[in-house]
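Researcher: Please predict.
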Amino acid sequence: MNTKTTVMAAIGGMLILGTFAFSPAPPPSERENNLKFLPKDISHDDLMNVMHSFEAATGMNCGDCHTHSTTDPNKMDWAADTKHKQTTIDMMKMVQDLNKQYFGVDGDFKTNYLQSQYKVSCSTCHNGHDQPNSMVTIPIPEKR
């Protein structure tokens, strides 16, 4: 009888713990974020698409703009502000402004960026490099 009770209690405990361990992630509105330019209600998939496109355009990765958590170095602190993150926000504003002013592309950054509506994007200047690629496309004669 004791063994049966112990086994049943253990199974019940595992079921309760399992319920909490595998509960779904909270909806985006309940997640802590520090989005300053992208919409706060952006879907996780759209946010990841934007971030991964930035990686491809700049040759950088998550850790270049985001920092590790101070409480758990094995986790990232996505909401923390860093110098590179602020530069990225400034670049997103610049891309949006250039496309609106010179190419008449209105609307929000996320939609235009993900739907390839922009004529000027991160890749235009960075072309896979962390710094804008300033390669001259035609030979310039040397001054003598």
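Model: The CA atoms of residues 58 and 128 lie 4 Å apart.
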